From TrEMBL:
<keyword id="KW-0862">Zinc</keyword>
<dbReference type="GO" id="GO:0008270">
    <property type="term" value="F:zinc ion binding"/>
</dbReference>
<keyword id="KW-0472">Membrane</keyword>
<keyword id="KW-0479">Metal-binding</keyword>
<dbReference type="GO" id="GO:0016020">
    <property type="term" value="C:membrane"/>
</dbReference>
<protein>
    <recommendedName>
        <fullName>RING-type domain-containing protein</fullName>
    </recommendedName>
</protein>
<dbReference type="InterPro" id="IPR013083">
    <property type="entry name" value="Znf_RING/FYVE/PHD"/>
</dbReference>
<dbReference type="InterPro" id="IPR001841">
    <property type="entry name" value="Znf_RING"/>
</dbReference>
<keyword id="KW-1133">Transmembrane helix</keyword>
<keyword id="KW-0812">Transmembrane</keyword>
<feature type="transmembrane region" description="Helical">
    <location>
        <begin position="6"/>
        <end position="30"/>
    </location>
</feature>
<dbReference type="Pfam" id="PF13639">
    <property type="entry name" value="zf-RING_2"/>
</dbReference>
<feature type="domain" description="RING-type">
    <location>
        <begin position="71"/>
        <end position="113"/>
    </location>
</feature>
<keyword id="KW-0863">Zinc-finger</keyword>
<comment type="similarity">
    <text>Belongs to the RING-type zinc finger family. ATL subfamily.</text>
</comment>
Amino acid sequence: MLSVILALFLPCAGMTALFLIYLFILWYLARRHIDLLTHSAKPQLVTGLSQSDLKKLPAVTGKDLVLGTDCAVCLDDICDEDAATMVPGCNHGFHRECAEMWLMRRGECPLCRATICPPHHLLTSSENSPL
């Protein structure tokens, strides 16, 4: 009789122990994953451009684009007569409205993620000179 009880009890106890170990491992990994997400080592510091900075970006038409006519924001083609913006530095082009919408939220190229520094209008030496 004792051997029958042990034959039924030991496998059940072993399976229960394995199941509890499995649940503990899942709990540990989930908690570790949440900790990694909440305590990111690299905080997002990218901010959008101001309205004055957006006005300084080169305004072109679709036919003037150098690196293709696909807008990476709306995934549509930029027609020759469409108003477009060319990002300084990387020369990627986008629809004007799409670029403004994106760049107001994030100050980086939607395609290559390069940080955008709008070209500042330089004063001539006679206007800049204090003499």
